[in-house]
Amino acid sequence: DTEVTQTPKHLVMGMTNKKSLKCEQHMGHRAMYWYKQKAKKPPELMFVYSYEKLSINESVPSRFSPECPNSSLLNLHLHALQPEDSALYLCASSQGGGFPGELFFGEGSRLTVL
Amino acid sequence: DAKTTQPTSMDCAEGRAANLPCNHSTISGNEYVYWYRQIHSQGPQYIIHGLKNNETNEMASLIITEDRKSSTLILPHATLRDTAVYYCSASERSGNTGKLIFGQGTTLQVKP
Predict the structure, then answer these.
(1) Largest alpha-carbon pair distance within chain A?
(2) What are A46-96's pLDDT values in tens digits?
(3) Given CB atoms, is B100 within the 8 Å cutoff of chain A?
(4) Phi-psi region of A109 (alpha: psi -120 to 50; beta: other; left: phi over 0)
(5) Which residues from A are below 8 Å from B43, CB to CB?
């Protein structure tokens, strides 16, 4: 199984809603990542988890709250988002132990904030 | 992190080699060069990476100049399915993990 599964594929939420994005992998990878991608732009790194601990936060606003409950799961909790947060949110994983190596990406969750 | 610059777009004839350049003039000695591609509506896909030696795998070849300030990704026989955005990145270890920061990307259009 070389897949990273992201749910939901599409999400529409209002600015006062609380929602979560979920990411799962069963490759035994110990590093997991969240990226944000706006239309026609490259993915932008948001968070990196290494061995279930947050190791990189790229100065992301607190309305985005990551969580890594175990080595296979990564969540992104969303609260009080703005319309400009509408984007494709990509999850990725890698073997870990430090250096990125090859990242395996999911198909993404497309978020629309109204 | 080193900044990478790539041409915005390129065309290639089907069956010919596609050569995609990348400049990374501020790359440090510890930074690897990575290439990913993203086909419309899909997540990015890893292609290849290298430090200073040329690398080849089943998908592509990576040629890194001796001063490591630029590199070229070569797809030896481009097919229509290779039409995608190709991202060049220079990334390094950061503490107990690493950072992969994407460049702006080159849109490669393979034409029949």
Answers:
(1) 39
(2) 999 989 999 889 999 999 999 999 989 999 999 999 999 999 999 999 886
(3) yes
(4) beta
(5) 4, 90, 92, 105-108
